[in-house]
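Issue 218. Parser rejects a valid record. Input:
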Amino acid sequence: MDLGITGRWAIVCAASQGLGKGCAEALGKEGVNLVINARTQATLEQTAAELRAACPGIEVRTVAGDVADAEVRQALLAACPQVDILVNNAGGPPPGDFRDWGREDWLKALDANMLTPIELIKAVVDGMAERGFGRVVNITSGAVKAPIDILGLSNGARSGLTGFIAGLARQQRLAGSNVTLNNLLPGAFDTARLQKTLKAAGGDVQATTQARRKAIPAARFGNAGEFGAYCAFLCSAHAGYITGQNLLIDGGAFPGTF
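Output the parser choked on:
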């Protein structure tokens, strides 16, 4: 299927590895020009080189730094001639016990996983509406729907973003101008973040990993490639009637009907 986004420009945050990289790769293969961001310059440049090799004909630009920093966000926006697609993504806050977290821990989590995406959205959606096309995809977490006790910082911050998007996506100025905003909620994907969470659970990591995998009806962890393909479809010309949604990708792990 031709997704109808060849020649568009996308900003993809936290794109040097994991799910962000999967999204950048999927968009690049559809002919989308990319401005990618990550905190580590060397890793980011390596990813950019891989994208250029895998997706000849597209332009790939890099902006290194913490996207929670206003100056990095400004540089990211300046590097993109026209933001048609925005993929918000950030590493989640550390796991732990809420009894050990102070005010600064909460503010840091909110800044990275709620306020920073909102700032980027604010900077781009009106221009998208004026041009009659825009796609915003926020990578949040399956924990928004099925909270994990040791991920309280993430549960709280990402749920805040989810509530904000639910209202904004339904503004007729945006939805009526072919601008969509959706959240992708990954379950257990084979990423560095998952490995960190499994280790934080304590005990035998190998046994914990096997038990977690066995509990998933698909009997495996997800991979970044399939996640990226889902993201690319949401960014496509065919997805203009999907907005304000929280789309769970978890191999059937969530047991509910809704």
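Fixed in the parser; the record now loads. The chain has two domains: 7-186+222-247, 189-220.
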